[in-house]
């Protein structure tokens, strides 16, 4: 074959390959890293774009109008990161690639997670289902063996899901309607390090539900309507949060904003007592996994301030009375209580609105704090001042 003909043929092949590469990235998307990282977010899409390369590693379809992706993503066998958040999906898409490491399906209309939705995702490490309408999730034993981070915050759970994957390190269940943790639900979660339970409806919890969490480092319990007047139900939990080696943010009732860490090792430090602290040091999502690193899930805990957290306000001595007797009065819709004694009193007298009945509540001395704090008490917010 003449040299000129061969050169012409090679040039033609090169031009065809360039055209093919240019056709890989859909016009409404942006592509990078050899067209393996594809961003089709914020385009009002109701259908999956055409011309997506079959070997893409990362696909961002967030902030669109997608309603159903069943069976449309399975052909992307090399997909590692999928962001389908902020769409109109009513369930997790059927037939997702089994190579996925990270799925973000937050801010959709998903009501249930069935066992088959995650049954074959052996490689999945992070699952974000926050800001949906979930009331139940069903996991099968020994599935999701690689899952380390699960975000179920801002949903409609009434009880902590049972049978959660046993190797989870981060679970965010904040901002739900949780009332209870069934006995044994957490017994096999020996690697759980960060557990977000704030902003729920817990009134009491057995301290034994946390006994098997051997790796627990951070637990958030604030902004729950703890039944602090029912000493027989709350005392054991208060004692547990004092002696645990984990850091507890939003201690129940009026102890203080942060407690626990009874046996804190010198090597473990915390930079902040903020409820917005992301799990396991999560940063902004990195769309690429080419370096072999998976992006951590981010907890949806922003904008939270515990009702039972310590209020760092000056001591208000004007609430005291000459006799030193404890009393509760109403000021602008709030009940204000002053203790019998600055140091030793353990009894608080309360008057339930509309009943005229006086109720005395005994408070363990070690739980009193020399500050003003707020808690839910007899259905109202109460300010306790000890000076």
Automatic annotation (TrEMBL):
Alphabetic keyword roster: Leucine-rich repeat, Repeat, Signal
Q: LRRNT domain: which residues?
A: 24-58
Ranges annotated as spanning the membrane: none
- Positions with biased composition (Low complexity): 334-350
Coiled coil (residue ranges): none
Annotated GO biological process: neuron projection regeneration
Q: Which Pfam families match?
A: LRR_1 (PF00560), LRR_4 (PF12799), LRR_8 (PF13855), LRRNT (PF01462)
Sorted alphabetically, which SMART domains does this protein's record hold?
Answer: LRR_TYP, LRRNT
- What InterPro entries does the entry give? Leu-rich_rpt, Leu-rich_rpt_4, Leu-rich_rpt_typical-subtyp, LRR-bact_E3_ubiq_ligases, LRR_dom_sf, LRRNT
| Chain positions covered by the region annotation Disordered | 320-350
As given in the record, the signal peptide range reads 1-23
Q: Which domain of life is it from?
A: Eukaryota
**Name of the protein:** LRRNT domain-containing protein
This protein's species is Electrophorus electricus (Electric eel)
